[in-house]
Design a protein that fits this description.
The chain is of the alpha/beta class and about 210 residues long. The protein contains 7 helices and 14 strands. The strands form 3 sheets. The protein has a 6-stranded mixed β-sheet with strand order 1-2-3-4-5-6.
């Protein structure tokens, strides 16, 4: 039985809706900390499953990498259940309000901010492009970066919908993520993990293909 740590991985399933379309998705939810306290990264779809991974630990914060509905749809419920604040970059406000018009995040995330739980520090790296305030969370100590939907195994996150920009996400990946150590593990918002070193050689291919 849990707890475990320092990183627990939960896969939840539901839908993502934007610009009039809805898609079935599986989301990665990350619970980071020690046996006493944790951060939850991206409270998606299934609060009971996420709650089981948390166990009896204190939740320091529910951190949102961005505000697409599949990443935040359970953030208020989880925050209320565990008496924890919701953290989100303020540039995400238009997307957040589509899902939670009646509830604002509790605290803002800014670039360079350090969030700590269970002795593990995560540095916020604001990486716009997939959305205006997309934010990655980097732990040098663990050698891990949680990239939300900014960087995946095989390329950048999608930029074909409202509030997104391909040129911007490329700038964010090039300037902020690829300079991290090559052996840094990339824990993504969907699908398999990768490393910075595995993705870095393909930057020009992504630019050429345009997505």
């Amino acid at each position: 039985m849990p707890p475990k740590g320092p990183i627990d991985h939960v896969v939840t399933s539901g839908t993502f809706s934007l610009d009039g379309g809805t898609w079935e998705v599986d989301n990665n939810v990350w619970v980071v900390g020690d046996e006493n306290e944790v951060l939850v990264i991206d409270a998606a779809h299934d609060p009971e499953k996420i709650g089981a991974a948390i166990g009896g630990r204190r939740v320091v914060a529910v951190v949102c990498t961005h505000a697409h509905d599949d990443h935040v749809n359970q953030a208020p419920r989880l925050a209320d259940t565990f008496n924890a604040p919701i953290l989100l970059n303020p540039a995400e406000a238009p997307l957040w309000e589509m899902t939670h018009p009646e509830r604002k995040p509790d605290q803002e995330i800014s670039d360079g901010q350090v969030i700590t739980a269970g002795g593990i520090s995560l540095k916020a790296l604001v990486t716009p492009g997939h959305s205006p305030g997309s934010t990655c969370l980097y732990s040098p100590e663990l050698g891990v970066v949680f990239t939300g939907d900014t960087l995946f195994a095989g390329g950048p996150g999608a930029t074909g919908r409202s509030y997104s920009s391909f040129d911007t996400i490329i700038d964010s990946i090039r300037g902020t993520l690829l300079p991290l150590p090559g052996d840094t593990i990339v824990r993504t918002g969907h699908g398999d993990s990768t490393t910075v070193g595995a993705e870095a050689p393909h930057l020009e291919e992504w630019i050429t293909r345009g997505h």
